[in-house]
Amino acid sequence: MEILRTREELRNAVNSVRGKSVGLVPTMGYLHEGHLTLMRKARSENDVVFASVFVNPTQFGPNEDLDRYPRDPEGDAKRCESAGVDFLWMPASPSEVYPEGYATTVHVKGLTDGLCGASRPGHFDGVTSVVSKLLNSTRADRAYFGEKDFQQLAVIRRMVLDLDMNVEIIGVPTVRDTDGLALSSRNKYLSADDRQNGLRLSESLERARQAWAKGERDGATLEALIRQTIETGTPNEIDYVEVVDANTLRPLREVPSNTPVAILAVRVGSTRLIDNARLDRAEAIRQLG
Ligand code: AMP
Fold first, then answer.
1. CA 207 – CA 261 distance, rounded (Å)
2. What percent of the chain has pLDDT over 90?
3. Ligand 1 pocket check: which of 149, 169, 205 to mutate, most ligand atoms within 8 Å of Cβ?
4. What angle do CA 60, 13, 164 make, to 5 degrees?
5. Hey, whose CA ends up nearest to atom 17 of ligand 1?
6. Using CA atoms, how far apart are residues 268 and 258, in angstroms rounded to an integer?
7. How confident is the model over 75-90, as pLDDT tens digits?
């Protein structure tokens, strides 16, 4: 595996693999089994695999966790190598990504208004802009994203379609710990108590899935069930809980859908966690005790 630190090294690496199929896995590092699952899938479907590790400042708001976001560049490099990555783009500094005078933003309307877009203004502009740059600079044929960030995946699919980007976007199901907690780099912030309280997220999703399986179709009722499961007996603070259509992200409260996804963001201790699940799937999200 080759580690690329400058834009010139990245350009040379991309030029050296012309004619081969390229898979890309963009990440912010502090890699876990969720990220590695994306990388292994990319490995199995492409001649060449690029991964990126870059904590992108433009997708963090002024009061968010940019400065304390966990980092482990050496460990990440080892993990990427073990997952079969050929080239790891780990910019030496943000100026390798954003040259002097950088002035361009990619904005997807509509899909970015609600959910995380409402509580994190500007976040998705940061994401779509940096992902556009990565898709252009690596000339990826396929790019891999986790369903864990469900809204992000929907926004990126919209962008690629709208801008005629010649890349296939592949969504990968959320990887969870054995107790049901969705893997996230931010889980590092959780205390033992927080971790216990955090289990209410996947529990609430599983309860909603079971309710859907039994025929409950009312968005408000499903949302209330989720809220109750997350909040009862915990200090968890809900940012949002919504049951929406998986493609349009429009709430079931407004439009019925056969492809419902429950999607939520909750502050657990000082950490904001996100999770989601398709309610129409037969498999359990996790076992309930
Ligand atoms: P991040 O480093 O958090 O920006 O995530 C990089 C990529 O990994 C994104 O496409 C995420 O959706 C994906 N990802 C993060 N956590 C998981 C998980 N638990 N399961 C599957 N994919 C994940």
1. 13
2. 100
3. 149
4. 60
5. 34
6. 31
7. 999 999 999 999 999 9
Q: Residue 270 C-alpha to ligand 1 middle, in angstroms?
A: 20
pTM for the model stands at 0.98
Residues with active-site annotation: 35
> What are the pLDDT digits (tens) for 121-170?
999 999 999 999 999 999 999 999 999 999 999 999 999 999 999 999 99
Tell which residue, 1, 28, 25, has the closest CA to residue 13. 1
Closest listed residue to residue 147, CA positions, set 171, 119, 128, 169:
171
Residue type, 187: N
Q: In sequence order, what are the residues at sequence separation of 6 or more whose Cβ sits closer than 8 angstroms to the Cβ of residue 224?
A: none
Residue 289 banded pLDDT, cuts 50, 70, 90: confident
Averaged pLDDT for residues 266-286:
97
pLDDT tens digit string along 207-249? Answer: 999 999 999 999 999 999 999 999 999 999 999 999 999 999 9
Neighbours of 207 (CB within 10 A): 19
CA–CA distance from 12 to each of 22, 98, 137, 138 (Å)?
A: 14, 18, 10, 10
Residue whose pair of structure tokens reads 């108590």 in the numeric block: 193
**282 conformational bin, left if phi > 0, alpha if psi -120 to 50, beta if neither:** alpha
Ligand 1 center to 150 CA (angstroms): 10
> What is the CB neighbour count within 10 angstroms for residue 31?
24
What are the structure tokens assigned to 10, written together?
A: 């990245």
Closest listed residue to residue 184, CA positions, set 34, 6, 12, 18: 34
Residues with CB under 6 A from ligand 1: 27-28, 34-35, 37-38, 145-146, 148-149, 172, 174-175, 182-185
- First and final CA of the chain: distance in angstroms? 43
